[in-house]
Amino acid sequence: MSGFCLRDLFTKALIFLLAFSSAYGVSAAELPSEPLLSFEATKIATDVIANGAEISLISESSAVTEGAQAIQVICRAKSSQAGVTFQADRPWDWGAFKNFGLALDIANTGDYSTQVYVALEDHRGKNETRTASIPAESEARTYYLVLHDESNVDSGMRDDPPRWNFEGNKLTWLWGTKQLDLSNIRRIKVHTGTIIRDRAIAIDNVRLIGKPGELVDHLTGICDQFGQNAHADFPLKIHSDSELKSKAAEELSRLAESHVLPDRSKFGGWKTGPRLEATGYFRTEKVGDRWSLVDPEGYLFFSTGIANARMANTATMTGVDFEEATVRDIDPEEVTPEDSKGFVQTSAVSRRTKFIASELRHQMFEWLPSYDDPLSDNYTYVRSVHSGPVPHGEAFSFYQANLERRYGEPSTGSHLAKWRDVTVARMLDWGFTSMGNWTDTSFYQVNKIPYFANGWIIGDFKTLSSGNDYWSPMPDPYDPEFVRRANVTAAAIADEVKGNPWCVGIFIDNEKGWGRMGKFASQYGIVINAMTLDSAVSPTKAAFIRVLREKYGRINDLNSAWGSTFSSWEELATGIEVPAKTDAMQTDFSMLLHAYACEYFKVVEAALHEVLPNHMYMGVRMAHWGLTPEVVNAAKKHSDVISYNFYKEGIREEDWPFLPEVDMPSIIGEFHMGSTSDTGLFHPGLIAAADQADRGRMFKEYMESVIDNPYFVGAHWFQYIDSPLTGRSYDGENYNVGFVTITDIPYPDMVAAAKALNRSLYERRYGKVAHSIAVEEEDSQQ
User: Fold this and answer.
1) Contacts of 707 (CB under 8 A, 6+ apart)
2) Less Cβ crowding at N or C end of the chain, within 10 Å?
3) Are 28 and 212 in contact (CB under 8 A)?
4) How far is the C-alpha of 6 from the C-alpha of 48, rounded, in Å?
5) What is the 3-state secondary structure (H, E, C) of 449-460?
């Protein structure tokens, strides 16, 4: 054959399968012995497709693990998903196999670690994606994913420790469906994400594997008394209370000798740079060719900081619940959603009704305090969760307990006050200019470092669906109850901020499901959903009808444009299915989505400016997967700064072509990198690094890409603290994304990278601008 042929290999596998399959499926021993994909031919076959990459056959010993050749993939940074797709002429049928997975050998032939995504897609277009960071200049290693395992359970973690005793690196679960049609797999895709430089990897020996033996009780006793991995050792692991206190004392001694960087103003601005108009509060101004924040004294300000310095969401579900039902009561006037709720203490009455709701969860812990233990005040109750094996229940914060161990508690809450002071000292020592979003309100009146306030609009208002409502349905901003709740939220924030000039601005809500680019149905899902509703019960639908009537006047004119047959505006106002798309309909849906987003931002802006007229509205922190031009342009009209959460390697101009046209100050609200290789954690986070040193490098490079972009005025790392080992209570995230561990030990590589970046921050960002201003002033004086 000319090139390796997927079809011939599939035929061999199918013959093998038919010969040995039974009603009970095929055991591991009966899996095909030959590779699923071989690279031994003289040229690459047509069913191997390069995507934003160049592919070739190589014979280097460091890359080849089966036969004499491997396939090399040069991934180009200009492509958002560079890699290779193995396309089956006929689907792979693995439906009869039991307890099996897919393995492949990957080498990194380049100078930088490479995050690789391995995605499988079935005939329905359903897919699942796993990932790993391949260390720089590394020989081929085996990476694998489990496709079927009869012992698989919902653990309440984003990913679990390995179930298989297999000599290879388990690919980490990211997203997709865990119910692929294994009898009809169409594609295997190996690719990078958004990369800021070219990468080179080699792939060999793609094969099916059987379970070689399961780890006994792989979810039992995995968490020690400090919330760490009980079954692994790693550089920053704590082994005793005395060691924890000793580490704390050493750090406190170092912090006592620390000084704020000499080029910083009172509010963290660039003291040695040009001075603009001072208003007493933070504001924005375009200086030269780049946007800037301006601090209350008039100095140029760029916001570097860390988000989520708070106790909320540091707890993990214990598997315990209470029959006493009042613990689950929710006040309809609450302004904080469950994932950001502070600690909820349960009463003795409730605790007497304790029962084990999830034995699986409860057995994960080597230790949990009894209710009469001094550390039992670190229990909380979670009234509802986003995902996991229990809908609600008790949770415990090992992080907060470790603070109590570190600092003691001579008076109620004193360890938390000490934590706050140490956190501020760290931020200043590390050179950060601000705190990021979701800063605990206890920082709001410290008056030592700028911060961003935040709030959420929750309540019993009407909602819509975009089809991408990962966190929650979309609000109906035309509903008077939404307007009321926005005002309630703004009033609560104002009461916390108290007009403090150290507050840079306010973020409201987070990662709303505005829609996804790429398809009509995903981009305009909100409008499509609204059209199915009756305007008598949907304020948004009623608003859409008003907008359309104003544009068309007669229903027949709309019918001509849409190719529809509505008899009247009244018929359109009732719930209807959207007819086949036309160009005019797409134009109208874009107009309606923009009107919807404008109403949302207008309501929030009005609520905030009524009670916090001197503070900036920072927007809604739009996720990179939810950016549509209609929403960005709506945010421009009503926000002082547009905010985005962008989980990639860095900022590339190709991903932000709209910034020059929008021409607004923008800020990155979230990004991170993590690693499992030297932390004991089971998930690296969304962007994977090879180890802690690599994580520090990636942090610095990401920040430099933001600093160099003229439209961004800051970026905030997510988050301050590693996620709990066993998953945060609300959604199971168990990521290595902290600047500090669960025992509150800073990661040295991250601290070193932050200090290096922040020392050169202002000269890098504004050095040329300052020189131009100086020249202009000199010329004007002559």
Assistant:
1) 302, 761, 764, 765
2) C
3) yes
4) 9
5) CCEEEEECCCCC
125-183, pLDDT tens digit by residue?
Answer: 999 999 999 999 999 999 999 999 887 889 999 999 999 988 899 999 999 998 999 99
Q: What is the DSSP letter of 743?
A: T
Using CB atoms within 10 Å of the CB of residue 314, give its burial: 0 to 12 exposed, 13 to 18 middle, 19+ buried: buried
∠ CA 110-112-113, rounded to 5°: 105
Distance, CA of 710 to CA of 288 (rounded, Å): 9
Residue 233 and residue 244: Cα distance in Å, rounded? 16
Within 10 angstroms of residue 748's Cβ, the number of other Cβ atoms is 13
**Both tokens of residue 446?**
């410290």
| The one-letter amino acid at 130 | R
Amino acid identity of residue 392, one-letter, is H
Q: Helices (H) and strands (E) in the chain — how many of each? A: 18, 30
In this prediction, what percent of the chain has a pLDDT beyond 90?
Answer: 85
The span from the CA of 585 to the CA of 597, in Å, is 18
Non-local CB neighbours of 237 within 8 Å, separated by 6+ positions: 228, 229, 680
Q: Is the distance from CB of 662 to CB of 642 less than 8 angstroms?
A: yes
Q: Describe the chain by its helix, strand, coil percentages, rounded to 5.
A: 30, 25, 45
Q: What are the residues whose beta carbons fall under 8 Å from the beta carbon of 222, sequence distance 6 or more?
A: 161, 229, 230, 231, 364, 725, 726
Alpha-helical (H) ranges within 498-628 are 520-523, 525-531, 539-552, 555-562, 569-573, 583-611
Report which of 648, 647, 686, 645 is spatially closest to residue 666, judged by C-alpha positions: 645
pLDDT at 775: 61
Strand 83-92, strand 100-108: pairing? unpaired
Q: Could you tell me if 297 and 420 are in contact, meaning their C-beta atoms sit under 8 angstroms apart? A: no
In DSSP notation, 482-507 reads HHHHHHHHHHHHHHHHTT-TTEEEEE
Find out whether the peptide bond into 719 is cis, omega within 30 degrees of 0.
yes
| Burial class, 481, CB count within 10 angstroms (exposed 0-12 / middle 13-18 / buried 19+) | middle
pLDDT category at 27 given cuts 50, 70, 90 is low
* Nearest 10 degrees: Cα torsion 318, 719, 622, 383: 20
The structure tokens listed for 455 are: 């709030």
Quote the pLDDT of residue 18: 35
CA 436: distance to chain centroid? 15
Distance CA 422, CA 430 (A): 12
In the numeric block, the tokens 């106002």 are attached to: 573
Give the pLDDT score at 20.
Answer: 34
Q: How far apart are CA 658 and CA 670, in angstroms?
A: 20
Secondary structure of residue 327 in the 3-state scheme: helix
Q: How far apart are the first and last CA of the chain?
A: 80
Nearest to 128 by CA among 155, 146, 152, 105: 146
Q: Find out whether 608 and 491 touch, Cβ atoms under 8 Å.
A: no
Query: With helix as H, strand as E and coil as C, how does 690-725 read?
Result: CCHHHHHHHHHHHHHHHHCCCCEEEEEEECCECCCC
Q: What global pTM score does this model have?
A: 0.94
d(CA 654, CA 644): 16
d(C-alpha 571, C-alpha 45), whole Å: 56
- Give, in order, the Cα–Cα distances in Å from 375 to each of 367, 369, 408, 745: 12, 6, 10, 19
Q: Between β-strands 642-645 and 622-623, what pairing exists: parallel, antiparallel or unpaired?
A: parallel
Give burial (CB, 10 Å; 0-12/13-18/19+) of 211: buried
What is the reported pLDDT for 627? 85
Q: Are 244 and 389 in contact (CB under 8 A)?
A: no
Q: Which of 697, 681, 700, 690 is nearest to 738 (CA)?
A: 681
pLDDT tens string 228-270: 999 999 999 999 999 999 999 999 999 999 999 999 999 999 9
Q: Rounded CA gap, 82 and 114, in Å?
A: 12
**Helix, strand or coil, per DSSP, at residue 553:** coil
